[in-house]
Amino acid sequence: MTKSALQIARAAYQPKLPKALASGAVKAVEGAATQSVADQEAIKALFPNTYGMPLITFEAGEAVKLPAMNVGVILSGGQAPGGHNVISGLFDGIKKLNPENKLYGFILGPGGLVDHNYMELTADIIDEYRNTGGFDIIGSGRTKLESESQFEKGFEIIKKLGIKALVIIGGDDSNTNACVLAEYYAAKKYGVQVIGCPKTIDGDLKNDMIETSFGFDTACKTYAEVIGNIQRDCNSARKYWHFIKLMGRSASHIALECALQVQPNVCIISEEVETKDMSLDDVVTYIAKVVADRAAQGHNFGTVLIPEGLVEFIPAMKRLISELNDFLATNAEEFSHIKKSHQRDYIISKLTPENSAIYASLPEGVARQLSLDRDPHGNVQVSLIETEKLLSEMVATKLAAWKEEGKYVGKFAAQHHFFGYEGRCAAPSNFDADYCYSLGYTASMLIANGKTGYMSSVRNTTAPAAEWIAGGVPITMMMNMERRHGEMKPVIQKALVKLDGAPFKAFASQRDRWAVETDYVYPGPIQYFGPTEVCDEPTKTLQLEQGK
Amino acid sequence: MTKSALQIARAAYQPKLPKALASGAVKAVEGAATQSVADQEAIKALFPNTYGMPLITFEAGEAVKLPAMNVGVILSGGQAPGGHNVISGLFDGIKKLNPENKLYGFILGPGGLVDHNYMELTADIIDEYRNTGGFDIIGSGRTKLESESQFEKGFEIIKKLGIKALVIIGGDDSNTNACVLAEYYAAKKYGVQVIGCPKTIDGDLKNDMIETSFGFDTACKTYAEVIGNIQRDCNSARKYWHFIKLMGRSASHIALECALQVQPNVCIISEEVETKDMSLDDVVTYIAKVVADRAAQGHNFGTVLIPEGLVEFIPAMKRLISELNDFLATNAEEFSHIKKSHQRDYIISKLTPENSAIYASLPEGVARQLSLDRDPHGNVQVSLIETEKLLSEMVATKLAAWKEEGKYVGKFAAQHHFFGYEGRCAAPSNFDADYCYSLGYTASMLIANGKTGYMSSVRNTTAPAAEWIAGGVPITMMMNMERRHGEMKPVIQKALVKLDGAPFKAFASQRDRWAVETDYVYPGPIQYFGPTEVCDEPTKTLQLEQGK
């Protein structure tokens, strides 16, 4: 591996730990028994061995010498900055417990467990990856651990390697599956513990006990850096509207956090669009209105932040897509004989009036994509829609109409951006480096204390790291029952942006001013070595949620 | 202006100056008389007052009290990191000469001079912009100062404001025009000096006396940061080929520098494609070959860097576009009656066999764009082509054919990125902050020494800043005669990537290894406060060119 100067300098960084963990020996203090956030009876019935367990908090304690044990670790799903530090924290934690302890990494995600694809993670390897971004130490994958045959295949290699506990680093679905696996191994009395760690740049795995998922801090700061640079360009050239789409299909936390960091002219929050039952035209009108208001002041430039999942949150679009899926499925044969150039009119003539009107309002390219690019099940692929271009085209059309009516005087030229891969593997910020290392270290202590079905938890995260509170939360506590693929399933509740939450309220109270004024903030790149107010601030979301 | 924590911390940075300038008082040492790089007689005839002047080097000297003077400054063309530091260096330089001196900024580029749109830049204003990115202090613009009527309009406001000298911060064209203006004012004996400063992220304004243009360092490092992050993601997920287009239409310095920083699997250099007379198919085949070779090792992922101007460098594409422009111009009437769905076949049937074959090989979307999206003069808009998508589509097509023939076994899925606006207004790196401040300060000394038609020059830039050599270079020295819009014009020679230059040779000697191995480097974000090897290294291009 050829290393950059920053990587070499950063390797020496010693992540900070909560005081209780840094003291060397810990004791687990049990709180009250817990219950799931909803559907208590159903969840309890499904998790008889892992339901109702107490919260755990670690405090400084007496060192106890435990017999040697082996631990396995899995990275699951999309990359998030800090994954390597979870693993190095876990490694240092188990080595502290007993230098004989071994850590095995399963390769390319949960599939590595099922396929018995693994490697031992030794000190030499771990040292190459401390404080680095990416999941390349063992790779990640999207195989879902769901079936008993997978659990049994996994147990074969677990037995063979003498693994006492498995740590699964993943998002809400992966942690749900970690708990199902914990329950299964407990029910079977296999003596294998399973611990989860909260990962996702999307920020949608959080609740009272899990303040934030790791990676959100670094990813948002990286996006805010480049958005800030674009805003400075925008404000210098004064001739473009930049439409910037941000990763995050199921929640708008990234867009909201970036908006709080950079103060754009417009930021759309999917959850608000859904709650207010806004149509696509409502969203377009809102943006066009801001463009027109700024143009009236002579400002033909601006920035618009758009969450990736927007289209799927617009109720009317959901209805259109649903009818389109049904229609194309039932009329596949007939549709295949329609000439390409006539397909659009054909669809318009066949849909219900409401959906027909929306379909007709879509730019040609998007309409074509919706009818042609379907997934293997024949469904419309909403994720392929370039929402940033869709919106800017529709805004341009609306402005042209307003110009005709004399309601708009200005020039409108757009640039488009989509940021996702740029931030998922950035080198972790000090916050994520410390938080991840603490999560991994905490996981080792949960294992030492014989826990299973717990998620590693580190709280009080807006305080200095020494004051953070490490512990464990029963995963069942975060669950409710939801319909997934037509079946009721126990799942961890996904945290969407709350319209009555402090971050959204802070945004909503300022957005009208940001729309007309040009009060862009330029956060600049993540710094690792400078003054603490530059290097160590957590996200605005976290600060606002904690009342800071 | 709401400021970020980094912006506040960074405002306190005092840029470093060459020792001679830092000493407070300087003397100008004149070197030998100069001549233009080519076409000496023609250039001399066009610039009788500004041709053949000596090189200037500043050394520490005696302070001389000069009468108060006013200076004007203009930002011309695209943004580049450090523009604000050129202005603050210029400001501090003239204030040091005499605190009574005043600096006026012309607003939104050269147009501000012609339209008499200006503001006085006072200490309060300057202090808000030190070490920041962007050109927003006075804005920039693309008006070209070319005609005598513009020069005379400019002189009106220059006279009114008592301006002794004008500093034009711009790229090769803007500096050419600065010299034409210097010559004009000298010929008219208006007593107005004009000094240029070398700006452009593209890196194509450089020569023996101008080692680098400002902004190249910061912009490339910002692009390398996000490309590095994408590479780490690529190497973690192991399932995508990322096609990454980089700004820079007329030269590939940015792509080359980024390649040297991140070690991608593929980087295309336009100048090489042109020199070797490679066809579009040759480029596609080269990339597809790397994809196939990696797939044979089980690596269905990788990164490809593409310079924005590539298509315009492919000789065969230039010929196609030229024929297409002629054909569409002479057959406009007939073409307008051809049905959209038949236009492609129509064009294929009409072009010469060579061009027809290339046109037929283009993906449908690109072919449509070439025939439909034309500029106001009816010309094909090459810059609208999404080269990154064009190449990945054509690579996919070629791989599919090779799969049929059993020559390729693998999966190919692509992601696309285009980076430009992300880096043009980044906060300047230490290098650019120091270099720009020194260029501005040097400009003030050239003014104090009565020089005109000079470009501010700071050399020996791979040494610590104290050892940098400040001075001035007659702009005519960098000129030759070139055909522009059908006329022979005196212009500064554009610096393209030299295939026998050290940066290209370093790249070429390693690229075959980078293609098959995965030896990505992850430079991480620009650091301002850390160890010197992290914060102060100049670009690889500059180091290699200086034999470091």
TrEMBL record, chains A, B:
EC number(s) from the headed UniProt entry: 2.7.1.90
Q: Where is the Phosphofructokinase domain?
A: 70-340
Q: Name one GO biological process term.
A: response to glucose
The broad enzyme category this protein falls into is transferase
Binding sites annotated in the UniProt record for Mg(2+): 172
From the UniProt record, give the pathway where this protein acts: Carbohydrate degradation; glycolysis; D-glyceraldehyde 3-phosphate and glycerone phosphate from D-glucose: step 3/4
**Recorded GO terms, molecular function?**
6-phosphofructokinase activity; ATP binding; diphosphate-fructose-6-phosphate 1-phosphotransferase activity; metal ion binding
GO cellular component term, pick one: cytosol
Reactions catalysed according to its record: beta-D-fructose 6-phosphate + diphosphate = beta-D-fructose 1,6-bisphosphate + phosphate + H(+)
Pinpoint the site Important for catalytic activity and substrate specificity. 173
One matching Pfam family? PFK
* Official protein name in the record: Pyrophosphate--fructose 6-phosphate 1-phosphotransferase
